[in-house]
Each structure stands twice: as C-alpha cells, then as structure tokens.
Amino acid sequence: MNSRDTELVYGLLLENGYGKADSAENADIILFNTCSVRKHAEDRVYGQALLLRKWKRKNPNAVLGVIGCMAQNHKEKIFDKLPHVDFVCGPANIYEIPELIKKALSRRGHLLALDRRQRPNVGQPACRESDVSASVSISEGCDNFCAYCIVPYVRGREQSRSEKLILDEIKNLADLGYKEVVLLGQNVNSYKSGRVNGFVKLLEDINKIKGIERIRFMTSHPKDASPRLFKAMRDMEKVCEHLHLPLQSGSDRILKRMRRGYGTAKYLKLVESFRKILPGSSITTDIIVGFPGETEKDFDRTYKIIEKVKFDSAFIFKYSPRPPAKASGYPDDVPPDTKAGRNQALLKLQENVSRRINESLVGKNLEVLVEAENSPGKIETLWGRTRTNKVAVFGGELNLLKKLINIRVKSVTPYTLVGEKLS
Ligand code: 5AD
Ligand code: SF4
Which candidate among 86, 112, 123, 379 keeps its CA 20 to 30 Å from the CA of 372? Predict the structure, then answer.
C-alpha cells in the first residue's frame, strides 16, 4: 500500500512538471513516505535527522516532506525531532502535496496537512515502478481493530473503491501493456460493491479483461476467507494460486487477546480446504512474536503450527506497542531478549521449511511471468515470478520481458528458484 502511494505521489509530481533527481543529495524535493505499522519503521525515519541537516545545508532551498502513516500518527511532533522538515502530510491528504511544495517554496514555515478522515475515492498512479505488474487499490483503511494494530487509526475506516474505477484502471493498464494486477486492501475479502460476494464478483469481472494475464491479491483475513473464494480462484484461469493469510499467533489465547476473530482450528481448516481445492498452490503468512502476555507455551504453539502448516514463506515480526491501538495499554511484558530469541527461532525454522518446499520443486516445469533484468553481471540475466509468487531467476534475452514462459527448476535457495528456460 505504501509503495503504491509512492507511485501516486511520484506521478502527481511528474504531472506538476517535476522530474526525477539522480540522487537524494542533488534533489530539490525529498519526501519520506513513511510506515507506522511497527515502531522500528518510525525510528528509522527519526534516524535520518543528521542526513536531513546535511542536505539542507548543501541545498537550503530543498523542500523536505514527511508523508504517509507516520505523519498522521506523529503530526506536528515530527517538527520537534526533525526541524528541517518543511511539511508533514497524512495518507488521506497526499493529493495536496503539489500545493504544499509550492507553499514551502515560498517559505511559509512548517506546514501540516492531516486529518481528512477519508481518502478521496479517486486517482490512479500516473507513474509505476514496473511496466509488467501493477498494484491496484480496491479498498483503503480497515475496520478490524486488531489489538496490536495502528492501521485503522492512521488509514481510517474501511472504504471500498467503486468497481467502475477499479475496472477502468485495470482496462487502462491492459491497454498500456501490463500483464499482471495485484489487488490491494487491508482485507480484500470484505470488499463491498453492493453485489453479494462482492470480491469474487470483482475477480470475475477482472478475469474477463483482455491483455491481463495474471491476477493476485492481498491481504486475506482468515475470518473472512472461505472455500467459496478458493473455488472461485480455481475456476478463474488468471487468478494465481497464492494466498497470503496472516496467522499472527498459533495460540488461541493470544489470538483472542489480539482480537483476530478466529482460532487455530478455523485457520487449519481453511488451509486444508485451500490446499484441497488448489493443489500445488502456496500459502504465506505474517507472525508476531512477543505480544503482551505471550508465554513460552504460547510461543511453542506458534512454533508447532509453523512446522505443521509448512508455509511457503512467512514475515515474522517482534511486537511493538502502537498507541492508540488497544494492546498498547497492556504491559509490554515479554523482555526484548526473549522477543529477539523467539524471532530468531522462527526465522530459522521458516528458512528450513521454505528450503525444503523449494527443493521439492527441483526438476519441475513452472510458468513464469518475466518481470525485469536481474542485477548486472549475473549469469541468470532475468527474473520473474511463478504463479505461486516465488521469485525465479534464469538466463534469457531481453525480448522475453513481459512474456509468460516456462522454466525448469535447476536449483533453489529458501528465497529463490534458479531455472532454465524451456524452448
Ligand atoms: N507489532 C509487530 N508487528 C505488527 N504488525 C502489525 N502491527 C504490529 C505491531 N504492533 C504486523 C502484523 C501484520 C503486518 C503487516 O505487520 O503481522 O500482519
Ligand atoms: Fe491491522 Fe487487523 Fe486491519 Fe490487518 S486486519 S490492517 S492487522 S487491524
């Protein structure tokens, strides 16, 4: 979501006559698009204070802005720690950025653009990072209020984008030569359009758009995902066989305290149903360790469920309190060393699980959408993704870019497949 906002803002700036600088040092405008989902992300922005001072000294007319969720979260307090920043702008106000830049250029002190409750239901990025795969927002904000999560407070309540805007955006992407769309929402399964089974109906309409060859989406919430969705995924040839299904914890007690709205039995049933309906598919997840009150026993349950489910990959996070989320009022009672130890243990476990799953793919033929050139100097000159969202590298000519090809997997790491193109 954050990367998509960067594309939106970058597009807005291009439309307003600005161009891309070759480095931050030489730029006249520097914007930090920030995330506040974990404290670490915010700390990293405050860690840039010295660098900002250096840039300002070198180019006193440079405009510095902090935008995104951290801007909404910390508001004018950002100016206390980062006095060189000219403006702070929340995620719902990003359309005001060209105006803010103009004002900052005429030197009107610290500027704040916050607190618009809902993001305007308009707009698509005028500039995108990739020319093959495009992110398309289908809903903004979230109504779930999981106890650890700041998103509903900084991004606002859930608001579905209109089907017409989404379909027009995707048709336009198809005309521009894009092959893949990634539908984004904090909880795509609760997409509402006024039609029953709104998300599945939306997928069906996108599946009919000529030129688009692959459809992905994230994130699915276990409380709203269902076998009906999995069957729809199976029946639509463009929808890829990958599900990002955040588990968060393997302990029912902790899931309840997290206010996730499901228990491990329901989660395991969903996984079983997904794999039965879509054999050869992949499942990825998010896990938080060290949530308030997490005991060794709770952690052990998470460890065991990761061993049991065998996720293709998992993002594993150490809990950090995020006021005003509900759990920020609970004692943050798992010591930092314990959080770090649990984090390491799960990372190691997951690495082994991912490696074994990938090893089982050696010798198999897989369809890959060729996305871009690999880093210079590599024998595998290109990279792409399988339908199951695994990154694959392989050798080939540049005319393969944007094409669907088949590769045979030769070797693997826990994170990448190395293949050769089949003729
Ligand atoms: N601490 C740690 N991880 C968090 N996440 C969300 N809030 C927190 C927090 N306070 C993680 C969840 C979510 C992912 C995007 O970030 O796992 O799924
Ligand atoms: Fe946060 Fe929960 Fe909403 Fe995900 S579903 S964005 S974790 S409140």
Answer: 123
